[in-house]
Amino acid sequence: MADSDNSTTLSSVTLGGSGEGAIKASPQSDEADPALNLLRDWLRAQHVSQVLCRFQQRLETRVLAAACPASMDSKVGYSIAYQAEVEAATAALKIQDRLPRTPAHSLLGVVAKLEIVVGADRDIDDPTDFPWPHIESILRDLKEIAGSVPLERPDRSIVQADCRRYQAMAADLIGLGNHVADLPLGQEPAVGVDTE
């Protein structure tokens, strides 16, 4: 016996294609989904923050090992690198703050939003405590249904440009703008920073 009240047509999702769990793009899919753009921005900011953290840690080691005369130059570079890392981490946090106001227009958008939540918590709390294993379980289920968000690492030149921008902001903030060119890694801040 057919149910005459059930006349809703379900949209079709095609799993497969290139990559794990890719779905066919539709106007309501990844191109038009602000949550996917938010995830890409957040991942880029997170990556830049991690690059600047490693750079700052290397400079910290140099400052600790430097002799007194060379110590001042090392401290200036370290201060800029430290503040640049803070600026980059703050940018990632600001993107996270936009998450509740950013709508998802697709299941991949929901996946993207959960990726940010789970990814942000990895640095803060114990991932084995409630509710994180449960949220990760939901994320895995959604990925099985909708596929994974196709993510690419930002190009090295983009990461380096972001690093230079945060270092310039940091130098201006701590009043050392004229010292940016004197950073130990070359003529411009962050040149030579390992972006991998």
Considering the chains and any ligands shown, give keywords for the structure.
mainly alpha, 0% strand
Care to give the gist of this entry?
This protein has 196 residues and is an all-alpha fold. The chain contains five helices and no strands.
Task: Please provide a written account of the structure.
The protein is mostly helical and 196 residues long. It has one domain (30-182). It has 5 helices and no strands. Helix 1 (34-65) packs antiparallel against helix 2. The longest helix has 32 residues, at 34-65. Mean pLDDT is 76; it is low at 1-30 and 184-192.
Helical residues, percent: 55-70%
- Shape descriptor: elongated
Quaternary arrangement of the chains shown? Answer: single chain
Total DSSP E strands:
0
Discrete helix count: 5
Q: Spell out the helices and strands N to C.
A: HHHHH
Q: Please state roughly what percent of the residues sit in beta strands, choosing from under 5%, 5-15%, 15-25%, 25-35%, 35-45% or over 45%.
A: under 5%
